[in-house]
Amino acid sequence: MTSEAPARAGGLVEVLQAWDDDLRSADPLRFPAYRVPGPGEDPVRTARVALDGAEAVWVDCDFRRSGGTMGAVAGERIVRAYERATQLRLPVVATVSTGGARLQEGMVALVQMTRTASAAARHARAGLLSAAYLGSPTTGGVFASWASLAGVRAAAPGAVIGFGGPRVVAQVTGEAPPSTSHTAESALRHGLVDAVVPESDRWAWLAAAVGGRPHARLVPPPGRPGSPDPTPLPADPYEHLLRARGPRRPGGVEWASWVTDSWVELAGADPAMRAGLGTIAGERVVVVAMDRFAGLSPLHLPGPGAFRLVQRAARLAGRVGLPLVTFVDTPGADPAPDAEAGGVAGEIADTLLAMAELATVSVAVVVGEGGSGGAMALAHADRLLMLEGSVFSVIGPEAGAAILYRDASRAPELTRSLRMTSGEVFRLGVADDIVGEEPELVRVAVQDALATATAGARDVRTQQVTARALAAR
């Protein structure tokens, strides 16, 4: 095991036991003029480490050693590392820079993609977390297998990141990719990595990602409401709705920042949805927050990419045994042509499926406007809380008035008929509780819900609502 990475880690990581240094690369194809990597030259090294005081398994794939290429020895070391991590119930942290599969080993190298992916899958199925830090370059078969299967991923600033490196792209397509492609920053914009982190901070980020000491909090963008809306709740339902939509009212990201103590971002391609690994009162949770102040559409409505992020967060929570908390605040999903072409309806359905299949406890908090299936996808939780000033409706009243009356100006009238205020939704039995609009009250309510909810209760509540409706005369 090299000493370079630990030496630069500022004392955060200590190698406790290096593994499999006796494995040596061979030449299975008798490849012409191929010089087999000697001792110390194989790109992958593995070890059990102490990371910020907690044990983990470290996989180090380094481009400076034989181009970081994955052959039989590299694949075997990675597989054994994941198997040991599974047996020891330890997370895996990976530092990666690679040119991909080792061409001189041919299909022997290529099958290592399947072996390492299977090993990573077994580790994940055991409820264990993994995190990867991608250096430059990270390409090819390593990026397209175990490295991209890490539960959380960060990349070095400016790193070359992509399945095909720029030279391969130019050869295959006849045109070099633009400078904005195949970069860590591009990968972040498209939700392929979760953060761009300077190399000096990589060990702190990896430690936080797999459950070590928190090193960051969720910070909303500047210009957002810094406190709950102080205006009194109006009696009229339509005025209640307008207040829930108002610019002084904080959104899901603001409420998530007040409730959580730490945050490791899970990035997505649509800023209308944020997700992260957080802590609440010292307990690890997965959090999803709608951001009504951001988004790709003009109205900041969540599109297909936003719901794919929710699915990823829910499945990560289930896989590693963490509860899920969602903060709901949207008038509905994006119905624009691009969103329709991107399969927004199917993504909402898949989000409902991910929430339904979740084996751990889930808590949803409606903090503003909950509208239609776009909101319901995040509200299919074991415990559904609503802030006093929030609303939840089958459809936005303007769209509903256009459908029912062919007259959107009748939205105030329809608002009253739809019974969408927090009190009315609670009386229907759709919501479990109403919470006052103070950060500490919401924090305590979420903690209590996490402590007392039962996984699977999400279906009981909706069945009871339906049964009452069928029995009504």
Automatic annotation (TrEMBL):
UniProt cross-references to SUPFAM superfamilies, sorted A to Z: ClpP/crotonase
Gene Ontology CC: acetyl-CoA carboxylase complex
Pfam family, one: ACCA
Enzyme Commission no: 2.1.3.15
Localisation: Cytoplasm
An annotated GO BP: fatty acid biosynthetic process
Catalytic activity: N(6)-carboxybiotinyl-L-lysyl-[protein] + acetyl-CoA = N(6)-biotinyl-L-lysyl-[protein] + malonyl-CoA
The keyword Lipid biosynthesis belongs to this UniProt entry's keyword annotation: yes
Domain of life: Bacteria
Domain CoA carboxyltransferase N-terminal positions: 1-228
Alphabetically ordered keywords of this record: ATP-binding, Cytoplasm, Fatty acid biosynthesis, Fatty acid metabolism, Lipid biosynthesis, Lipid metabolism, Metal-binding, Nucleotide-binding, Transferase, Zinc, Zinc-finger
UniProt GO MF annotations: acetyl-CoA carboxylase activity; ATP binding; carboxyl- or carbamoyltransferase activity; zinc ion binding
UniProt main location, coarse: cytoplasm
Residue span, CoA carboxyltransferase C-terminal domain: 228-456
Cleaved signal peptide residues: none
Cofactor: Zn(2+)
Purpose of the protein: Component of the acetyl coenzyme A carboxylase (ACC) complex. Biotin carboxylase (BC) catalyzes the carboxylation of biotin on its carrier protein (BCCP) and then the CO(2) group is transferred by the transcarboxylase to acetyl-CoA to form malonyl-CoA.
The protein's assembly and partners: Acetyl-CoA carboxylase is a heterotetramer composed of biotin carboxyl carrier protein (AccB), biotin carboxylase (AccC) and two subunits of ACCase subunit beta/alpha.
PANTHER family: ACETYL-COENZYME A CARBOXYLASE CARBOXYL TRANSFERASE SUBUNIT ALPHA (PTHR42853), ACETYL-COENZYME A CARBOXYLASE CARBOXYL TRANSFERASE SUBUNIT ALPHA, CHLOROPLASTIC (PTHR42853:SF3)
Protein family according to the UniProt entry: In the N-terminal section; belongs to the AccD/PCCB family. In the C-terminal section; belongs to the AccA family.
Protein name: Acetyl-coenzyme A carboxylase carboxyl transferase subunits beta/alpha
